[in-house]
From TrEMBL:
Record's GO cellular component terms: membrane
Residues covered by the Glycosyl transferase domain: 52-299
Name by which UniProt lists this protein: Glycosyl transferase 64 domain-containing protein
GO MF: glycosyltransferase activity
Signal peptide as annotated in the record: 1-20
Top-rank taxon: Eukaryota
UniProt family annotation: Belongs to the glycosyltransferase 64 family.
Originating species: Dendrobium nobile (Orchid)
Regions crossing the membrane: none
Keywords annotated in UniProt: Disulfide bond, Signal, Transferase
């Protein structure tokens, strides 16, 4: 999909509170052009830095019940300004969600993964920073609040909870995508925090057009390309945040009702890792730079008791129940 030429029919269902404490869906449907959205870069200085706009990408009808629970959870947090659901399955109607003044639903005309970073129109962008999240990820309020507070110190970097790494295969002279035990250079869009203007840079930079075409061809790697964008802007690696995040899409989930959720994710494909290594190699070739930088360690909110105690015949951390 060519971003600068594609017309998007976006239906913005914005819930507004009435005097009787009920909510009414207001249809603001309009035809937008990505080129039009690219004309206006967000003025970050006019937006609050202590709030988050949550941007959730949703596709699978099987996750509708979970999506409803997640939107209720996010909407209860005082530091969340708005929640934007991008419904990227044109062949299936979007789910019915509980109305809330913070909640906005945008059914998209395409399933392109590039639209995960759609430059938000100003009525929907109510904060300086964005949380990009999958529809099967549930962070604890404390973890999300911690990540937001860190952005004031590292505003140019990506912050995330799920790290990956790139490495050079000397034999093939190509890049590979891997999980390294003590360093990382990529954070995933499972849950990623970033500056709002990075949405604009990703979607509107002409030099990224060939790389966005790679994302569409592979149907993968949009998160890697965003890591390229942030690294080119900041000259820094991402920052890993330690915290409690429930990943319902993790294949290790075997609870009732969660097997199907775990089965539909892209990462469940066996060729997934090789394909993502190919993406890194292609992005490097097309952009002419390798901006990814390694980071080490992670930021945690607090450190509990580290003593070791014997409980029920086992040695465990003393603060472990």
């Amino acid at each position: 999909m060519t971003h600068r030429c594609s017309f998007l029919l976006l239906f913005l269902f914005i819930s507004t509170s009435t005097s009787t404490s009920t909510s009414t869906a207001v249809d603001l449907s309009t035809t937008l052009n990505i080129s039009d959205l690219c004309l206006y870069s967000p003025n970050l200085s006019s937006l609050p830095s202590d709030r988050l706009t949550v941007l959730i990408s949703a596709y699978h009808p099987s996750r509708s019940a979970l999506l409803r629970r997640l939107t209720l959870s996010y909407s209860s947090l005082p530091f969340i300004s708005s929640i934007v659901i991008l419904w990227s399955n044109p062949s299936s109607p979007p789910p019915t969600l509980p109305p809330h003044p913070k909640l906005h639903l945008l059914p998209l005309p395409s399933s392109s993964l590039n639209l995960r970073f759609l430059p938000l129109p100003s009525p929907l962008l109510l904060s300086r920073f964005i949380a990009i999240a999958d529809d099967d990820i549930s962070p604890s309020p404390h973890s999300l609040s911690l990540a937001l507070s860190l952005l004031s110190r590292r505003p140019l970097s990506l912050l995330g909870f799920f790290p990956r790494s790139h490495a050079l295969d000397l034999h093939s002279k190509s890049w590979i995508y891997t999980l390294h035990p003590d360093r990382y250079s990529i954070v995933l869009t499972k849950l990623m925090l970033l500056r709002a203007d990075y949405l604009h840079k990703y979607s509107c930079w002409n030099k990224l057009s060939p790389a966005r075409a790679v994302v569409d061809r592979h149907r993968n790697c949009e998160d890697i390309l965003m890591n390229f964008v942030a690294a080119m802007e900041s000259g820094e690696g991402p920052l890993l945040v330690g915290g409690r995040v429930r990943d319902y899409g993790d294949p290790r989930n075997r609870g009732k009702g969660e097997t199907e959720i775990g089965r539909v994710g892209l990462s469940s494909r066996k060729e997934h890792w090789e394909s993502r290594g190919n993406c890194i190699t292609e992005f490097h070739r097309l952009l002419g730079v390798m901006p990814l930088r390694y980071s080490y360690g992670k930021v945690v909110g607090e450190i509990g008791e580290q003593g070791v105690c014997r409980k029920a015949g086992r040695l465990v951390l003393c603060d472990q129940d």
